[in-house]
Design brief:
This protein has 451 residues and is of the alpha/beta class. It is 57% helix and 8% strand. The chain folds into 3 domains: 2-68; 87-201, no CATH class; 277-450, Rossmann fold (3-Layer(aba) Sandwich), CATH 3.40.50. Strand 6, helix 18 (389-398) and strand 7 form a beta-alpha-beta unit.
């Protein structure tokens, strides 16, 4: 029972249901108390112990059903394919040509005995250590190994046996049984993969997408990637709060500490710290929402607004040619909807960076000062319009720091209508930003310079 419960807890964690070691021990005590005879009682008792939120309860229910209904060969063989087949005659004919293991497999299918087949697959899966499956590639590897253990290679050889060359009906039955076993093995391996590695079936694709460019990410995966963005931002926020508490304490004021502890013969009972007065920054984010950059901008804005509680004042502007403030959208709506509305309102038109810089300067006015940090996100491709370098210079002189995030590779920053070579001298840093890890790295740097 302990081993089964450990495997179930592993499946829950793969389904994004966090279970601590202490909760695992509580679950073991629950199982010992309620037993395993009543499935519904066991499910409800474990749900009360292991699932906390509504989302976790939903994922728990799905995982519980999948875990305890994972038996192989649940889908019976098609009756239409075996309607006129003399089961005993087929088995008798192959008895002298097949091994006892293959005969047992064929007999289980032809005699409609799924229980024995499922038990045999379960035993083979445990012998093959399916719990060591770690990736999508492993799924195919384990499926092939399970098929070999069940006798598929021998069944292939049986189909080419000389003694069966002229027995068309038996060959047709054996070909269908081969196809049926292959399908059931693949289905079982898929279920095991979803339990052990990826409950959604999308993690491998998402990981591959996140390791590539975000502008190539299909919209169907936005919801899953939004969850990844939220988790990364939450982790970054937690780490930042811890660093900030340590930084706000300041360095030890040794003179004052020694003076106040003279009465204690040098024992330090009262510590005093040097504290620095920090000036709050304002972060201005200016995003190009034209089609060439919109997907990168989407995830950057979401990431920054997930960090809104630890960042200083955050004001956001969007443009394709004209530039406008969209901060109010993020105050009224969640980040996903706010980004979509901003793209609809400001993502149209021919990109004009010169006009956007002019509009941005008009909007911020005197709010842009020595405490301000300005972040530009865009490919700096201005369609050969006037770049207005004078405005970029003025922004750089008034702001504390200017950063530029460009989704293009550095070797393209000077090609064609790219204005990056004009704007780069007025930026503290110009970084490539095409992947989620680039956004995460920049957000961490931003938290450091704004504290």
């Amino acid at each position: 029972m302990e081993q089964t419960l450990a495997r179930f807890v592993h499946a829950l964690r793969c389904a994004d249901v966090p279970v601590s070691p202490a909760e695992t021990l509580d679950a073991l005590a629950v199982v010992q108390t309620v037993g395993v005879d009543d499935r519904d009682l066991l499910r409800d008792a474990l749900a009360l112990t292991l699932a906390k939120t509504d989302q976790e309860k939903t994922r728990f229910a799905e995982c519980f059903e999948r875990f305890f209904d994972q038996l192989a060969f649940q889908q019976p063989a098609k009756k239409t394919m075996l309607r006129n087949v003399d089961t005993e005659a087929v088995l008798a004919r192959v008895s002298s040509l097949a091994s006892p293991e293959l005969q047992e497999l064929l007999a289980g299918i032809l005699r409609h005995d799924p229980g024995r087949l499922a038990w045999r697959v379960q035993q083979q899966a445990q012998a093959l250590d399916f719990m060591h499956m770690r990736s999508l590639r492993d799924k195919g590897h384990f499926a092939d190994r399970l098929g070999r253990q069940l006798g598929l290679p021998e069944l292939e050889r049986l189909l080419e046996h000389r003694e069966l060359t002229d027995e068309r009906e038996i060959l047709d039955v054996l070909r269908y049984l081969r196809q049926y076993v292959q399908e059931q093995v693949r289905t079982y391996a898929e279920e095991q993969y979803r339990l052990i590695v990826d409950a959604t079936g999308k993690r491998a694709i998402i990981d591959a997408a996140l390791s590539g460019n975000l502008d190539q990410l299909p919209p169907d995966y936005y919801v899953e990637v939004d969850r990844v963005v939220h988790k990364l931002a939450d982790k970054l926020s937690h780490n930042y709060r811890r660093r900030r508490r340590r930084a706000e304490r300041g360095a030890l004021n040794l003179k004052r500490t020694l003076r106040d502890n003279v009465a204690y013969d040098g024992s330090l009972f009262h510590l005093h710290w040097r504290q620095k007065r920090l000036e709050k920054s304002t972060v201005f984010v200016v995003c190009d929402l034209s089609s060439s950059v919109s997907r990168i901008a989407r995830f950057l804005l979401m990431f920054l607004y997930e960090l809104a509680d630890v960042l200083p004042a955050l004001r956001t502007y969007a443009f394709s040619n004209r530039c406008g403030e969209i901060s109010e959208l993020f105050r009224r709506h969640d980040s996903s909807r706010a980004v979509e509305e901003a793209m609809f309102a400001w993502g149209k038109g021919t990109t004009d960076y010169g006009q956007a810089l002019f509009d941005f300067r008009e909007h911020v006015g005197r709010d842009l000062d020595h405490r301000s940090i300005v972040i530009f996100l865009g490919d700096a491709r201005g369609n050969y319009y006037e770049p207005r370098v004078d405005i970029m210079r003025a922004i750089s002189q008034r702001a504390r720091q200017v950063f530029w995030l460009n989704p293009e590779t550095p070797d393209r920053w000077g090609d064609g209508d790219s204005l990056m070579r004009h704007y780069a001298p007025f930026c503290l840093r110009v970084d490539m930003c095409s992947q989620l890890k680039d956004i995460e790295r920049f957000a961490d740097r931003l938290l450091t310079v704004t504290r």
